[in-house]
Automatic annotation (TrEMBL):
Organism the protein comes from: Halobacillus mangrovi
Signal peptide: none
Annotated protein name in UniProt: Divalent metal cation transporter
Membrane topology of this protein: Multi-pass membrane protein
PANTHER family: SOLUTE CARRIER PROTEIN FAMILY 11 MEMBER, TRANSPORTER PROTEIN
Length: 396
């Protein structure tokens, strides 16, 4: 029974991270870049998966071995660094949660014809309900798993309906016509950027899966999480490629909806509604849980009543969208800041991996350190460029 319970926990953490990544932005990015790059987008996906695995393996292992959440690890290295990291995570999580709530409203609009605001309100209530039950952790895990399976199954159906040129996709994945570095950075940021990579790592820590004896399980769960998100990405890419290859132009205001509609007619459009809603609500749950996990250790009150802080986080996100709408300019700036969170967090983790006061006698694999360092430099450069380009948008 205990083994089954641990397996369920590991799978739950993997799905929490994966479904946190698979949000409205994930769906839009994938279809947008497929239209731009066609079959060569397969290469972008392949490279981003390799980077995602490198980042996630490092972060989850070091959280597990130190038996501390990321903010406490950062504070152990330099007092105040954990507070800075937490501020970045919470600000990014809140801003993008407003976007996730908006995506949930769009999904219900497609399914039932109700206004996005009413749909967002309903979706916020569903997300809050997940945390109000007695065993919220287990319910969250099960909710993420169920939604994840539904999204992947429906996307596979639409992919087959689209009849993509699979042979060409495989060939261009290995030998692309063009390499788009911005697309790679965007995909990495959308999969392991901001709060996302910590969702599963903190969930495992919360559930007691930690220490040297758990490293094998943590490694397996972290790679599984990237695998689940990547499977969804690949099937969505193939569905979009099938539609684009047939000569259909995607609607720039809602690229993923036009892919599903072109591939499977009105049924496909309704399937898009289900996937958009499931993707958005699971991202709302993941963002709220992970953001609050970054401030729990700063106050005994927050730790004791963390479920209510999570509920408050969701309520605020929903209220902002329903009353004001999505604050686009704030999202632009926070989106740029979000690009800097991964290199800061991963850089902190790599340094922490060599501090005995944090990891004891644990020896971090050299290849993982080198892999992680390359990711830090690449993501810091692109995150800086993104921030410089994003700030002027605030004053237009």
């Amino acid at each position: 029974m205990k083994q089954q319970s641990t397996r369920s926990l590991l799978l739950g953490a993997a799905f929490l991270m994966a479904t946190s990544a698979i949000g409205p932005g994930f769906l839009t990015q994938t279809t947008h870049f497929t239209e731009q790059l066609a079959a060569s987008f397969g290469f972008v996906i392949l490279i981003s998966i390799i980077i995602d695995i490198g980042a996630q393996l490092n972060i989850w292992r070091i959280i597990a071995i130190s038996e501390k959440p990321a903010q406490d690890i950062a504070n152990s290295l330099l007092p105040g660094l954990g507070v800075l990291l937490s501020l970045l995570i919470v600000a990014g999580g809140l801003a993008f949660n407003i976007g996730n709530i908006a995506g949930a409203g769009l999904g219900t609009n497609v399914l039932f014809g109700i206004s996005p605001e009413m749909g967002a309100l309903f979706s916020g209530i569903v997300a809050v309900a997940v945390f109000l039950v007695r065993e919220a952790g287990k319910v969250m895990d099960r909710f993420a798993q169920t939604a994840g399976f539904i999204m992947i199954a429906l996307t596979i159906f639409v992919m087959f309906s689209a009849q993509p040129p699979v042979g060409e996709a495989v060939a261009k994945t290995v030998a692309p016509d063009t390499i788009d570095f911005l697309a790679i950075i965007t995909l990495v940021g959308g999969t392991v950027g901001g709060y996302i990579t910590f969702a599963g790592g903190h969930r495992l820590l919360d559930a007691g899966v930690k220490g040297k004896e758990s490293l094998g399980q943590v490694t397996k769960s972290s790679v599984s999480a990237i695998g689940i998100a990547s499977i969804m990405r690949i099937f969505l890419f193939l569905a979009a490629l099938g539609v684009v290859s047939s000569g259909v132009s995607l609607d720039p205001s809602n690229p993923p909806a036009s892919v599903f509609q072109a591939a499977a007619g009105n049924i496909g459009y309704k399937i898009f509604g289900i996937i958009m809603w499931a993707a958005a609500v699971t991202s709302v749950v993941g963002a709220a849980y992970t953001s609050v996990s970054f401030i729990r250790t700063f106050s005994k009150t927050i730790d004791r009543y963390h479920k209510w802080f999570i509920v408050g986080f969701i309520v605020i996100s929903t209220a902002v969208f329903v009353t004001i709408g999505r604050p686009v300019k704030v999202l632009i700036l926070v989106g740029s800041l979000n690009g800097l969170i991964l290199p800061i967090a991963l850089g902190v983790m790599l340094i922490a991996a060599y501090k005995t006061k944090i990891v004891g006698d644990y020896k971090h694999p050299l290849w993982l350190t080198i892999f992680g360092a390359i990711i830090v430099v690449a993501m810091a450069y692109m995150g800086g460029v993104s921030l410089i380009e994003g700030i002027p948008q605030l004053f237009k």
